[in-house]
Design goal:
Elements lengths: L1 H19 L14 H8 L15 H14 L10 E4 L2 E4 H10 L1
Antiparallel strand pairs: 1-2
């Protein structure tokens, strides 16, 4: 019983650390909030461009967009269904190709 409680406490500590270190959930929530970045993420155009001065958040904006799309968790767009293979995600169309290759 003691070992189970220790394991649960370790899991709780890991969850707390993950929540504290989850920079993606903290993106653009504190001052200064970059409204143009939010507009960029909400835009449904096929081609979008980010322009700005030094330290204006261009890289962060692009990195977050890439992570959201690759993980299928974009908050402003319909996410494509994906098929998970190990650490990788593939569009559903690739699922048939992967299954045929086996």
């Amino acid at each position: 019983m003691r070992k189970i409680i220790q394991t649960i406490n370790k899991i709780d500590q890991i969850l707390i650390e993950r929540q504290e270190n989850n920079w993606l959930s903290k993106y653009n929530t504190k001052e200064p909030i970059h409204k143009k970045q939010i507009e960029f993420h909400k835009c449904n155009k096929r081609n979008r461009w980010v322009f700005g001065g030094n330290r204006s958040g261009k890289t962060e904006c692009g990195a977050v967009e890439t992570v959201w799309l690759s993980r299928g968790i974009h908050p402003f767009k319909n996410n494509k269904k994906t098929y998970r293979v190990g650490l990788f995600r593939f569009p559903v169309k690739c699922k048939e190709m992967l299954l045929k290759a086996k």
